[in-house]
Amino acid sequence: MSEAESARRSRRRQMSKDERRAEIIRVAADLFEKLGYARASMDDIAAAVGIGKPTLYHYFRSKSELLWYMHEELIDGLIESHGARVEQGLEPAELLRGVIHDFLQNIATRRGQCRVFFENHRELPDADLAVATEKRARYEAMVQDVVRDGIAAGTFRKVDAKLFSLAIFGMSNWAYQWYRPDGELTHDEIADAFWDYAYRGLRP
User: Fold this and answer.
1) Out of 13-17, 163-167, 197-201, least confident range
2) Containing structural domain, residue 13
3) Do 20 and 112 have their domain in common?
4) Of 68, 94, 156, 204, which alpha carbon lies 20 to 30 A from 146's?
5) Using one digit for the tens of pLDDT, what is the confidence trace for 128-163?
């Protein structure tokens, strides 16, 4: 066994269960980005993490359970981040700007996880899919409420809140297809540009 491999195994033995689970999610997400969710197997994931398949099944019973945890981590994070800004009493414009930044931040730091979030969530088992669908709808409604609040306050011109929210989601979410960390713009610069384009369409 090489010294590097010995060090990795020692580090894993010191990990808590939550830390090990997070490592598996991170490595699996990278593998899904590289191979695609359908092609990547539990054998591939175990090998990429550097653990035996029985150990992997100790943490995740199936690939769909991994998908579920990835989805929950992202949607819960979006809901919590937005809710925290609402609690701070930020104005509608800043709240919508934050929504766009949240998406681009996730795409920049969790690209593979975002890919399966957008492309594969419908492959979840029925019970999990029902929960995931409800959370996604709840988040979309939260963003639509911000648009309506801005209209009511006179900050935004009158637009279809649902349609405008979908436009923001589409513009921001699709960046996972083309964003590159070594590109000309950082994810924050892209988010600011997207918000500028969106706000031009909202100003009274």
Assistant:
1) 13-17
2) 3-61
3) no
4) 68
5) 999 999 999 999 999 999 999 999 999 999 999 999
User: How many Å apart are CA 50 and CA 57, to the nearest integer?
Assistant: 13
Percentage of the chain surpassing pLDDT 70? 93
Count of positions (residues) in the chain: 204
Q: What are phi and psi of 185, to 5 degrees?
A: -115, 145
Decide which of 36, 61, 86 is a domain's last residue. Answer: 61
Instruction: Give which of 64, 105, 59, 62 is closest to 82, Cα–Cα.
Output: 105
Handedness of CA 33, 41, 28, 127 (dihedral sign): positive
- Asked if residue 82 has pLDDT above 50, the reply is yes
Tokens 């589409």, located at residue: 170
Phi/psi-derived region of residue 154, left when phi > 0, alpha when psi is between -120 and 50, beta in every other case: left
- Check which CATH number belongs to the domain holding 19 and give it: 1.10.10.60
User: Which residues in 116-143 are b (16+ Cβ under 10 Å) and which e?
Assistant: bbeebbeebeeebbeebeebbeebeebb
